[in-house]
Amino acid sequence: MSIVSKEEVLPSEPSLIVDNLTKNYADNIVLDQLSLTVNPGEIHGILGRNGIGKTTLIECVVGLRPFNQGTIKVGGLDILSNRDEIMRQVGIQPQEANLFPRLSIEETMQLFSSFYGDPLAYSEIMNVLDLERIKNKRVKSLSTGQKQRLLVALSLIGDPSFIILDEPTTGIDPQVKQLIWKVLQKEKTDHNAILLSTHNMEEAEKICDRVSILHNKKIVASGTPKEIIMNNRKIMNDTLEDVFLHLTGSSLRGEID
Amino acid sequence: MVIDKIALKYLVITGLKEIFREPKIFFFTLLFPFFFLAMFGGMSTVIDPSEELGLSFIEYLFPGILIFALLSVGFLGTSVPLIEMRQKGILKTLRTTPLNEITFIFSQIIVRLILGFMQIFIFTILGFFMGLISLGNIIPFILIGLIGLVMILTFGFLLGGIFNKTELASGVLSFGMMPLIMLSGAMLPLHILPDVFKTISYYIPFTYLTELFHQVLLDLDAALPIYGNVIVLLIISVAIFLLTKLTFRWT
């Protein structure tokens, strides 16, 4: 990983291959024959409206939810038969995750580092994410931004080659957002793969190498932010947000889940 | 699936910190039973001893109050926090790491064993100085307490997997604890109850624990010999643990 440099053999196979994934909740199809690839050294954004199935996709990828059809391979390993091994290589920041409320930041970092065979030095991660000066603060009294930074820090502690972040910058101030983006960029330069779920167009445009737009159970557009704009714009000056609205509709329709 | 010793150590430390740093949990799981002991001890000074059993009020109730204390740790101190961790998504967050469920379950059992052992230890000291436990009975009392604690904890984990909401679990378990204790013979001798309750009592695992305490501390008769009651309690514990492993849910 990035924070502590180390010599690595660059992986050649994709960090994630989702092939023909279908996920139903009872009779309701949430993801329909969805395919997606994330390569090492790439930040791949999943864009979609609230409740469209981004979190469901992530939870299927990390084996938190069963799925109905398709295959998911992380680092070449099938999630259904190799979940334990995959969890050692992947760092995850779940959306609205909760932690032990009465532990301090440092105690939480220490606890989570104990889950990994060869964790990074958590004090360095705390430094990078500006948590060192508040390391004694208890989780229950953290602000939204502080908690998000802690969750991102926890996702990095196992020295993962593939990082999955579910809306890491939702509801936080620009300074924290910039800090998280900087950390993600550093991860990318270290050839780690990042799957980032977001509905923040600025975030997608600024830090994602490729973006997939999830709508109506399927990926309706995929490519670099520029390619998506070029291929789907209606007028010359359309931004990614304009294109997103063209593709997903501008009405406030009911959410899927 | 093997136990990860380093993770286990930090999870145990975390579990203890979570309890000792929360006054409400600390009070209800650790201190509350001692109020019962003080209350019944006080009542014993004004209630005449039973002529039939030849025992004072507190002599008969003492093991029952310990069982009540252990049930507080096992039910309110195990099931409810487990449900709370699931409800709040803490278990789901843990599930996104390489932590395996055996390590997690064991860590929670060890935390409760420590709490339960603290209670057994304090009850032993109090019981000794109150003249309720003889010197020769100290070790058997502690051992029976530990066997009972293990069984109660496995029940706590099983119930923690069955219930979904803390409010429901707290209500049902608080409401259910007293009848369970009453029907196990810990508060009233079973022979004074109608036959139907006596029959029911033999389907309640705590009856075997109560009888074991009574056999050792009070020299009372029981349906099974001492070793028989121990075997029954161990079999129940193993069976419930296996069931817990099958029914445990992270989310």
From TrEMBL, chain A:
Q: Kindly state which keywords UniProt assigns to this record, in alphabetical order.
A: ATP-binding, Nucleotide-binding
- Origin: domain of life: Bacteria
Q: Which InterPro entries match?
A: AAA+_ATPase, ABC_transporter-like_ATP-bd, P-loop_NTPase
For this UniProt entry, which residues form the secretion signal? none
The GO terms this record gives for MF are: ATP binding; ATP hydrolysis activity
Q: Which PANTHER family match?
A: ABC TRANSPORTER G FAMILY MEMBER 20 ISOFORM X1, ATP-BINDING CASSETTE, SUB-FAMILY H, MEMBER 1
By what name is this protein known? ABC transporter ATP-binding protein
Q: Which organism is it from?
A: Oceanobacillus jordanicus
Automatic annotation (TrEMBL), chain B:
Lineage top rank: taxon: Bacteria
Coiled-coil segments on the chain, per record:
none
Q: Which InterPro entries match?
A: ABC2_TM, ABC2_TM_bact-type, ABC_2_transport, Nod_factor_ABC_transporter
Q: Which UniProt keywords apply?
A: Cell membrane, Membrane, Transmembrane, Transmembrane helix, Transport
GO CC annotations? ATP-binding cassette (ABC) transporter complex
Task: Enumerate the spans annotated as ABC transmembrane type-2 domain.
Answer: 24-251
Q: Where in the cell is it found?
A: Cell membrane; Membrane
The GO terms describing molecular function are: ABC-type transporter activity
Mind telling me which Pfam families this protein's record contains? ABC2_membrane (PF01061)
Q: Where are the transmembrane segments?
A: 25-48, 60-83, 104-132, 138-160, 172-193, 226-248
Q: How is the protein disposed in the membrane? A: Multi-pass membrane protein
Record-stated family: Belongs to the ABC-2 integral membrane protein family.
Q: What is this protein called?
A: Transport permease protein
List the source organism: Oceanobacillus jordanicus
